[in-house]
Write a structure and sequence with these properties.
About 70% of the residues lie in helices and about 0% in strands. With about 300 residues, the protein is an all-alpha fold. A hairpin with a 7-residue loop joins strand 1 and strand 2. The longest helix is centred in the N-terminal third of the chain and has 32 residues, at about 75-105. The two termini are about 45 Å apart. Mean pLDDT is about 85; it is low at about 5-15 and about 305-309.
C-alpha cells in the first residue's frame, strides 16, 4: 500500500499559487480589449469591406468585387508610394535608433546633469506634430527662413525642400526629432534593468566602457531594440501630417508616401473605395514588417527572469 503524504495537496496548491503571483486576472484586460475592438478592429473591418466597393463618400457604397485591388497592383503611383514609404521607414530607423540608443544609455546613468538634460530632450515629444511641421516649414523656407542665412555656411542649398532627396531626408529628420525622445525613454528603461554586477565583473576583468557597451549593454538591450524598432516602423509608415504640411507630397510626387496617397485619393478625388484598399494594404505591409522583425530577432521566444515581480 503506497503512502500518500497529507501535505501533498498543500504543496501543490502553494506551487500553483506561487506560479500566479503578480499576475492579474484576465478580466483586468477586458476594458483594453473592448477599446481596441471598437476603435481598431471595427474600423479596420469597415475599411476592408469598403476596399471591395466603389464609394464617393455621399452615396451608398457599391460592391465592385476585386476591382480596387486589381487596380492597386497595376498602379505605378501606388508602387512608387510604397517604395517611398519603405525608404522613409529605413532612413528614419537608421537615424533614430543609434541616437536614441546612445541617449537612453547615457540617461540611465548617474550624471549630475542627467535629470535636467533628459527633461530638455523630452520636450519635442510634448509638442503637436502639426506645430512642429509648421515650425520647420517656416525655418526651411528658402526665401524667408533661417535656412537662407545659415544654409550657405554649411554648404546646404537653401532650397533643400525643392529636391527629392532633400525633401525626404527633411521629413525623416523632423519626424525623428519629435519621436526620438520616446525611444530614448524606452532605452533608458531597458538600460536601467541591466544588472550592475555585470559591469562590475567586466571592470574587474579590465574591460573599458567601449567593450562593456558592445559586450554587455547591446546584448542586454536586444529585446528593447526590437520593441523600439517595431514601434518606429509602424510610426514611420503612418507619417501623414508632416508630409501634408511640409511638402504636400512634393516636389512632384517625390514624397507622396502611402498615407498621403490614401488621403489624396479619398479626400481630393473622392475615390474612397480605392483609398480604403490603399489603407488596407498599408496595414498589411506594416503588420508584415513587424512580424518579420519579431520572428528573426528572437523576440517571440523572450523569457523574462523578472516575470511576476
Amino acid at each position: 500500500m503506497s503512502h500518500i503524504s497529507p501535505y501533498a495537496d498543500v504543496r501543490g496548491g502553494r506551487k500553483a499559487a506561487a506560479g500566479n503571483v503578480g499576475r492579474p486576472p484576465v478580466g483586468w484586460a477586458l476594458p483594453g480589449i473592448l477599446f481596441f475592438a471598437v476603435f481598431a478592429i471595427v474600423p479596420l473591418a469597415i475599411a476592408v469591406y469598403l476596399s471591395f466597393c466603389h464609394w464617393d463618400g455621399l452615396n451608398s457604397p457599391t460592391p465592385v468585387g476585386a476591382d480596387n485591388w486589381t487596380r492597386l497592383f497595376k498602379d505605378h503611383e501606388f508602387r512608387q508610394a510604397a517604395w517611398l514609404s519603405l525608404l522613409l521607414t529605413t532612413v528614419s530607423w537608421a537615424f533614430q535608433t543609434p541616437v536614441a540608443l546612445l541617449l537612453g544609455v547615457w540617461a540611465a546613468g548617474r550624471q549630475r546633469s542627467r535629470t535636467f538634460l533628459s527633461a530638455v530632450f523630452f520636450i519635442p515629444l510634448l509638442l503637436s506634430t502639426t506645430a512642429i511641421a509648421m515650425l520647420f516649414h517656416a525655418l526651411l523656407d528658402p526665401n524667408f527662413g533661417v535656412i537662407k542665412q545659415i544654409g550657405p555656411w554649411f554648404g546646404v542649398d537653401p532650397n533643400i525642400m525643392g529636391s527629392s532627396t532633400g525633401a525626404l531626408l527633411t521629413v525623416a529628420f523632423v519626424g525623428g526629432w519629435q519621436f526620438m525622445p520616446f525611444h530614448t525613454l524606452i532605452y533608458q528603461g531597458g538600460a536601467r534593468q541591466i544588472p550592475e554586477v555585470l559591469y562590475q565583473a567586466a571592470a574587474i576583468d579590465g574591460a573599458g566602457m567601449l567593450r562593456q557597451f558592445f559586450h554587455i549593454t547591446l546584448p542586454q538591450l536586444r529585446n528593447t531594440i526590437t520593441t523600439s524598432s517595431v514601434l518606429m516602423i509602424v510610426g514611420s509608415l503612418t507619417y501623414f501630417d508632416t508630409v501634408l504640411i511640409m511638402t504636400k507630397g512634393g516636389p512632384g510626387t517625390d514624397t507622396t508616401i502611402l498615407p498621403y496617397l490614401m488621403y489624396r485619393t479619398g479626400f481630393q478625388t473622392y475615390d474612397l473605395g480605392y483609398a480604403a484598399a490603399i489603407a488596407t494594404a498599408l496595414v498589411v505591409v506594416a503588420t508584415g514588417l513587424s512580424l518579420i522583425l519579431v520572428r528573426f530577432s528572437g523576440f517571440g521566444t523572450m523569457r523574462s527572469t523578472r516575470e511576476g515581480m
